Amino acid sequence: MSVTKSFYGKMPDGKEVEMYSISNGKITLQLITLGATLQALYTPDKFGRLNDITVGFDSLYGHLNFTDYQGKTVGRYANRIAGGKMIIDGEEINLVKNEKDKTCLHSGGEFSSAIWQAEAVGENAVKFTHTSEDGTNGFKGNLTANVTYTLTDDDRVVIEYYAVCDKATAINFTNHTYFNLCGAASSNVLGHILQINSDEITPTDSDSIPTGEKRSVSGTAFDFREPHTVGERINDSDEQLVQCLGYDHNFCLNHHEGKADAVVYEPVSGRKLELYTDLPGVQLYTGNFLDGTVIGKGGMPLVKHAGLCLETQYYPDSPNHPDFPQCTFAAGEEYKSVTEFRISVVE
Predict the structure, then answer these.
(1) How far is CA 329 from CA 25, 89, 90, 133, 139, in A?
(2) Residue 144 in contact with residue 151, Cβ under 8 Å?
(3) What phi, psi does 83 have (nearest 5°)?
(4) Half-sphere CA count of 152, side-chain side, radius 13 A
């Protein structure tokens, strides 16, 4: 295996964006320094045809002008914080409200729009580093984060997160790749078969903020404990689906030893993607707000449900819900997490 580096593009301020490629002879993983982004993942289907199974953009122009966080690393707090407010050590922290002037979404996109420092680590991994200064988008403390992508010989993409801050802060990193196992956005993902090892979701209000409740998935369109196609129940009259135009919800993971936290299978290509994580939740998002007006890879329009995201995470708005698993880290306390995607083909 080997890691190669190439020029990807130039930012408006003249900074260069680099691309790193890792190949194990069967699969190729491409990463760019803008947003520590998973740019592409080329995998064979059951006929041996190689396709990129991620939805996004071929060029820097697309990432800068039309992004919905395709492939990007998201932090320091992924997902939403209600009212852009949280209390840490008795102090109210006021954050940027970048979504409808109501919520703090993905921390204002700081990490996703940054040019990360990158270095090859051996022959099959790339480590990205970014430091967020105290006060950026309202967050307290100077925080340094590392994200390391590793491609293994047995076709696993492993994402390791590390962060430490000099003040107490909430930390919740994720990767926002949109997957389409047919290959890029050649069709929507409604025919993908999905299984999630979860008994409960955290339902949301009309602003996509958790109500604080944990709701059983039994008897609902959110029950993926047995495999269902993504599209089978996506248009049900459940208010949770109606207000989000599809799935955009946190699933509380069961974490059964030796069992994947989620599995996606696409029967035409035969591709299967298994997800493993040590985090308590995963956000299933089905590209509900893509509308075909933006052109993505290969000149294909990014239509509604062109891809699905499995964003491993602490629950949204956790700092404001004491009953949720908490992700506030003291000064100097290390945040560490691992998410793994296992790629295979079913004949």
Answers:
(1) 40, 11, 14, 16, 13
(2) no
(3) 65, 10
(4) 11
pLDDT, one tens digit per residue, over 217-235 is 999 999 999 999 999 999 9
Question: Is residue 77 classed as helix, strand or coil in its secondary structure?
Answer: strand
pTM: 0.97
Which letter does DSSP use for residue 24 in this model? Answer: -
User: How many CA within 13 A on the CB side of residue 143?
Assistant: 31
Region of 332 (left: φ > 0; alpha: ψ -120 to 50; beta: rest) is: left
Please name which of 90, 92, 89 lies closest in space to residue 81, comparing C-alpha atoms.
Answer: 92
Contact in structure between 213 and 203 (CB atoms under 8 Å): yes
| 140: Cα within 13 Å, side-chain hemisphere | 18
| 149 neighbors 125 (Cβ within 8 angstroms) | yes
CB-based burial, 183-201: b 16+ in 10 Å, e otherwise: bbbebbbbebbbbbbbbbb
Helical segments of 102-209, H only: 110-113
Read off the pLDDT of residues 70-121 as tens digits, 9 standing for 90 and up: 999 999 999 999 999 999 999 999 999 999 999 999 999 999 999 999 999 9
**62-79 pLDDT tens trace:** 999 999 999 999 999 999
Q: What are the residue numbers of the active site?
A: 176, 311
Q: Token pair for residue 225?
A: 């404990």
